[in-house]
Amino acid sequence: MIQGTDSGSVARTDTGSSTPRTTRSRRSSLRGTALNVTVMAVATGIVATLALPGYAVNPAANADGVEAAEAMAQLRATQSQSLTVESETAQTVSRDQFTATSEEELAAAQAAQAAAERRAELAASYTAYSGPTAQDFLAAPPASYSQSAVVNIGLQYVGTPYQYGGTTPAGFDCSGFTAYVFAQVGIALPHSVSGQASMGTRISRADAVPGDLVVLNDHSHIGIYMGNGAILDAPYPGKTVQARPLWTDAYYIVRIG
User: Which domains does the chain have, with CATH numbers?
Assistant: First the structure.
């Protein structure tokens, strides 16, 4: 705009022109800065891509990573795991079987051991006997024989252990005992049940007196009759000479002499 002045000079007044010029200058500067930043970012990305190792671009590895990520995501979603064991793989557990010896078994074992020791002692005693035999008594028989003497002599050996084949106080069997007793009254008897039974006379039970012989019908045993249905005998292994009631009715009486 041109205005006149009182001094006659001409002056140009520029209104509104300085402000737009300054704004355009600032905008140009900002556009330049943004362009520079963009260029630098692109360049940095290119350099980073070129710097990656070979495996970073392996498709298979990337696929595995994707599958692993998906599996992890699924696990996190369910928040649980399960383990299935096939029945064939189940382990069988068994308890060892243990047994303990009962008190009865211990007692039986101790009794068996004691019996064995006792048998060993009796065998040793039987072997060591050095006293008189039936033959010794027969060599010098007494003047007379009495049945009461037989009973009294027999009672002296109560407690003598049974010994199969025994004929002395170390151990008697049934016929060995009667032969030993009768030898002391001067009568020789064979060492057998049937042999001794044949040495005398069979009498009725009503006539029997103490000192006669008691013979079982089957000739399995013999002893000295004690009266009142009793017998003095050497019973069987494990027992001793004793007077006891007759346990059977299958017997008969023999009188010697």
Answer: 132-255 (3.90.1720.10)
